[in-house]
Specification:
The complex is a heterodimer.
Chain A: H1 7-24, H2 28-50, H3 53-70, H4 81-100, H5 114-117, H6 121-139, H7 143-155, H8 159-166, H9 170-189
Helix pairs in contact in A: 1-2, 1-6, 2-3, 2-4, 3-4, 6-9, 7-9, 8-9
Chain B: H1 16-22, H2 27-39, H3 41-55, H4 70-76, H5 90-97, E1 106-109, E2 127-133, E3 140-145, E4 150-154, E5 157-160, E6 163-170, E7 178-182, E8 184-186, E9 189-193, E10 205-212, E11 225-233
Antiparallel strand pairs in B: 1-5, 2-3, 2-11, 3-4, 4-9, 6-7, 6-10, 8-9, 10-11
Helix pairs in contact in B: 1-3, 2-3
Classes of the chains: A mainly alpha, B alpha+beta.
Chain lengths: 192, 234
């Protein structure tokens, strides 16, 4: 899972940065390329949070319109392109879920190692970047802290929703997660 | 706040940046963290850093193919109303220039007599946002009409000479402020265009920053934040 940097991943990242930067200059053909390279990943992110295909497709359209508008603000040196794009998809999907008043999707703990099974170029890119350290550090947390942080990320749950899902008081949930995030922060900044 | 089981976090290192990157916070805590991203660049960078770090987890979300026609549909919409044209600031810039005669460098977006009828809030469930504005002790309550996408509040609004007051929305989980319109006079009130491609849910944070005339050139706030509010149901 903690793949070393490969020419493949570097090439994929470079192509993506190129397409994203050109999209920022309103280049439609670059936008098409960007869509082709990333729509499956971004749709996966929307689908996971929205829970149904129709909604996820509507959100995905908005995601790409947002990308078209905001691509000019992407700074290649500051953010990884796939994380930047997937974050827009995640946020739009969560906004949709909250605005529509839908309950968060059912609990899922099954996505631990899916990246190994079907590693696209984007996944290799992601695995490349921070994953090694992040996984190492998440593994050092208590199970319930790790679960809460992963659920918050994958499903877009707030403290309130996490507490409700686990039937614990809000303060207890905050306390668990804050302690977990503190340990994570320490661990991530070790030997930087 | 009065939850008896809440730990006393006084003095503990703060993890608000990570909480914001994950989207854990709600209500006043979230609004406070968002204000920090606007006011404190180091904090904003820390949020970015966390977002990058957590971004590695996207590798675990399985890809899925959207409907084949979706890409073309999106491309067809690129020039649609959801795409703000480069000239979107124009009518607002004119409104801002109405306020070109001020006292000691501070201009007011003054009511234009009978120019525009006051905003009518006709949506069945209007939402409100109580702005804390610098220099005001009491909150100023703005109404947000989700049907017209207009945010309206009692005027006038102080704006420094040669500057515009711009509205920003920070949606539920996205710390990046989305640029909205510039404030302009509308009868006794001031208004800003607050249209958004997805409906703005309660909990959305609004911020007002002082920008170069015509609005932020970068798409992100460049000037001081003079007010902020959280959208709630009326």
């Amino acid at each position: 899972m903690h793949a070393p940097s490969t020419p493949d991943a570097a090439g994929a990242r470079e192509r993506l940065v190129e397409a994203l930067v050109a999209t920022g200059a309103e280049d439609r053909s670059a936008f098409r390329t960007l869509y082709r390279l990333t729509s499956a990943k971004l749709f996966g992110v929307c689908l996971r949070i929205c829970g149904d295909r129709q909604a996820a497709e509507d959100v995905l359209s908005d995601v790409y319109l947002t990308i078209w508008k905001r691509a000019g603000a992407f700074e290649p040196g500051r953010a990884s392109p796939i994380t930047w794009l997937a974050t827009i998809a995640r946020n739009r999907a969560i906004d949709w879920r909250r605005a529509s008043g839908r309950a968060p999707p059912a609990r899922v703990e099954d996505i631990a190692d899916l990246a190994d099974d079907r590693a696209s170029a984007e996944d290799v890119m992601l695995a490349d970047e921070q994953a090694g350290r992040l996984h190492l550090c998440l593994d050092q947390l208590e199970q319930r802290q790790r679960d809460a942080i992963r659920t918050a990320f994958f499903e877009g749950l707030t403290y309130g929703e996490l507490a409700q899902r686990d039937a614990v008081p809000l303060g207890t949930m905050k306390s668990w997660v804050r302690r977990g995030l503190l340990r994570l922060k320490d661990c991530m900044s070790d030997d930087d | 706040m009065t939850d008896p089981t809440a730990p006393d976090l006084t003095g503990e290192p703060d993890v608000a940046a990570a909480e914001l990157a994950l989207g854990l916070l709600e209500g006043p805590e979230r609004a406070a963290a968002l204000r920090r991203t606007l006011a404190d660049p180091a904090f904003a960078r820390e949020v970015d850093r966390w977002r990058e770090q957590f971004g590695a987890l996207f590798a675990h979300v399985p890809s899925a193919e959207p409907a084949p026609h979706l890409g073309e549909r999106v491309i067809a919409r690129l020039d649609g109303p959801a795409r703000p044209a480069p000239g979107m600031w124009k009518p607002l810039a004119i409104a801002a220039s109405v306020a070109v005669a001020g006292l000691s460098g501070v201009l007011l977006v003054r009511p234009e007599p009978a120019a525009v009828p006051p905003a009518t809030i006709s949506a069945p469930a209007p939402m409100v946002a109580a702005f804390m504005i610098e220099g005001h002790d009491a909150p100023i309550v703005a109404t947000y009409d989700s049907a017209s996408g207009r945010l309206s509040m009692p005027g006038p609004m102080p704006v420094p000479a040669g500057k515009s007051a711009q509205l920003w929305a920070i949606l539920a989980t996205d710390p990046a402020p989305h640029p909205l319109g510039l404030f302009h006079a509308a009868g006794e009130r001031v208004e800003a265009d607050a249209k958004s491609p997805t409906p703005m849910p309660p909990g959305t944070t609004f911020a007002i920053s002082i920008e170069p005339l015509g609005g932020s050139p970068t798409g992100a706030p460049t000037g001081p934040v003079v007010g902020s509010a959280t959208l709630t149901r009326a």
